[in-house]
Amino acid sequence: MTTPDSKQQLSVSQLNRLAKQLLEDCFAQVAVTGEISTLSRPSSGHWYFTLKDQQAQIRCAFFRNRNMRVNFRPEAGQQVIVHGKVSLYEGRGDYQLIVDAMQPAGAGALAAAFEALKEELKAAGWFDADHKKPLPEQIHHLAVITSPTGAALQDIRSVLERRWPMMRLTVLPVLVQGEQAAAQISRAIEQANYLAASGREDFDAVLLTRGGGSLEDLWPFNERNVATAVYHSQLPVISAVGHEVDFSISDFVADVRAATPSAAAELLSPDQMEILSRLNLLRGRLTAAQQRRLRQQQETLASLLKRIRSPQSRLREQAQRLDELELRLQRQQKLLLRQKQQTLHAARQRLVLLNPRQTLKRQRLELQQLGKSLRRSIEQRLQQQQRQLEHCQRQLRALGPEQTLSRGYAIVLNPETGKAVRNSEELTMGHAVDARFAAGRAMLRVEQIEGSVPGDRPHQGD
């Protein structure tokens, strides 16, 4: 950058512009440690503050698009480290630091220790959901571990007074920052569990809380002994440390984490206005239901009253009904008696018809008739067979060999087989044959054999 000649005259704005360029070129990026003083936060969202040490101070501007990245709430008197560039506000000629980033002083080492302990406890399972104890449905007595003079306790009481004033609070006072704070907090958690286990107090849960602050201020809640006391607590532990953006080791180990002390009070208490509204709604429904029920009962009663009649009238009707039933019974008895008499008469008639004497007499007659019919059938059959025999005899005489023999013929029989000889080929020279005549028979010897005469056929019956 070129500087003007010493004899050249500059306007104030020109001088400030040159000074701004010079500062921004020479101090483009610096890191400065100091204490915040006179911090202001206008509605624009920008932060303006003074950073000082024991001997000097500098004005700082931290614009909204940059300060949105800060994960803590800076307060006056807090030691911080800011990163930015040196510049000059031309309008007033004010020398200032334009801040790009901010972190609590010493936060680097603390943040590393925080992450190391967090990873160790996470690996050990201290953050697992299955270790978390559920909160009671209704908390009647709450042990609050916090500073008795802190704003966190006042916020909790204010919320409970508005939402559920009947909840009992027992404050176990502790330091919430400093070297002695972690030991006091862990002892208070153990004390709350001891009082509940021994029956001296009826605590339902433990609320571990404090307001916001720097990482150093919140560090007691990142100590191992506090995490150990929270992990081994038999009472459910709610951790509400700092602001919504703040996270501590106790938040991860606790059974429930609340963003702020007020949010914890909201979480642990029912809204009495909501409950009253619900009760009023239920009361209205109950009243309406009772009224409907009463109307229904009144209508039922009126209907029953209309149906009620004089006992004398009811007795007369019953007497009349009894007479009618008596007459019906008599008619039924007479009718039944007639039916039984008719059944008895029919049975007697069937008995007469089924008398064994009559049956035997009838069967004897039938047997006699069958005997006569059998004799007639036998006689007819014998006569028929006799006629048939005589006919066969006539046919036998007409067709038998005796008729043929009586005309001078003879039958030649083989003496060995007794069969008629039908062909001369059946004869053997010199053998004997049996000759049968109409009267008598003779044994003949074969002297000569001639062939059979063509056309000759034996007679039937030969």
UniProtKB/TrEMBL annotation:
It comes from Spongiibacter thalassae. InterPro entries: Exonuc_VII_L (IPR003753), Exonuc_VII_lsu_C (IPR020579), NA-bd_OB-fold (IPR012340), OB-fold_nuc-bd_dom (IPR025824). Keywords: Coiled coil, Cytoplasm, Exonuclease, Hydrolase, Nuclease. Residues 315-342 form a coiled coil. Its main location: cytoplasm. Residues 126-442 form the Exonuclease VII large subunit C-terminal domain. Heterooligomer composed of large and small subunits. It catalyses: Exonucleolytic cleavage in either 5'- to 3'- or 3'- to 5'-direction to yield nucleoside 5'-phosphates. Bidirectionally degrades single-stranded DNA into large acid-insoluble oligonucleotides, which are then degraded further into small acid-soluble oligonucleotides. Residues 10-103 form the OB-fold nucleic acid binding domain. It is found in: Cytoplasm. Its EC number is 3.1.11.6. This is Exodeoxyribonuclease 7 large subunit. Belongs to the XseA family.
